[in-house]
Amino acid sequence: MRLKPSFRFSIYAALAVLLLTGAGWLVADRQKDLSSSEIWQQTAASLLMAHGGAAMVTLLLLGALIPVHVLRGWRNGNNLVSGSAMIALSTLLVVTAFGLYYLGSEAVRPWISWIHIIVGFALPAWLGLHIFLGRRRSR
Ligand code: HEM
Ligand code: HEM
Fold first, then answer.
1. 138 lines ligand 1 (CB under 6 A)
2. Which of 32, 87, 96, 126 is most deeply packed, by most CB within 10 A?
């Protein structure tokens, strides 16, 4: 179940960029309303662009993970509970990301945004737990 180090670090790097650009956007979006300077508006837009780019790479990595990791783990029954939660959280992120792009309704967008943000912060934390549990089991 161990991943090739280059693949594993690509996953960590993509998630780190998503987390930093997502958290940075939250700060810039807040500052933009408090300050009259244009700089926060521009920063927020650039961060969201970087976030979208990293999200595309992440989708590729998640797809590549299915045959070498997810299906194998599923067959062996190793780390099934925390792995299933990883899949559920990633799916929620992708579905809400789609919603952020395409569901314009003023009523639902804030909800989708909050779900995306909460799950976005939860995923890296859960990944840490998933790896800890998986490695403990395999030892
Ligand atoms: C989005 C889904 C998932 C992601 C991003 C993910 C990511 C990872 C990563 C990065 C590791 C550390 C690998 C290493 O140390 O080389 C790991 C370990 C592990 N994962 Fe997953 N995983 C996912 C889903 C699953 C599922 C569905 C299962 C099982 C059904 C699973 C089972 C395991 C096991 C058993 C380990 C421990 C491997 C070992 O150190 O021997 N994972 N996972
Ligand atoms: C597979 C993972 C992820 C995907 C596919 C994804 C994708 C997206 C997309 C497409 C958007 C909308 C961009 C736009 O409106 O131009 C977005 C917004 C956002 N994402 Fe993510 N993201 C992911 C993970 C994360 C993570 C880990 C965080 C961590 C905090 C996060 C935080 C945010 C924030 C704060 C926004 C702005 C919300 C808003 O516009 O109201 N995302 N994401």
1. yes
2. 96
Cβ-contact 123, 93 below 8 angstroms: yes
Identify which of 10-24, 26-40, 96-110 has the greatest average pLDDT: 10-24
* Domain hosting residue 112, numbered range: 78-139
Do 100 and 131 sit in the same domain of this protein?
A: yes
Residue carrying the six token digits 């244009």: 38
Q: Give me 51's structure tokens.
A: 């976030």
**Residue 119 sits in the same domain as residue 133:** yes
Residue 51 in contact with ligand 1 by CB distance below 6 A: no
Instruction: Dump pLDDT digits (tens) for 95-131.
Output: 999 999 998 788 999 999 999 999 999 999 999 999 9
**Cα(133)–Cα(83) distance, rounded to whole angstroms?**
10
Cα 42 to Cα 61: distance, rounded to the nearest angstrom: 29
Determine if ligand 1 sits within 6 Å of the CB of residue 58: no
Same-domain status, 4 and 70: yes
Is residue 7 domain-shared with residue 66, that is, in the same domain? yes
47-79 pLDDT, tens digit per residue, is 999 999 999 999 999 999 999 999 999 999 989
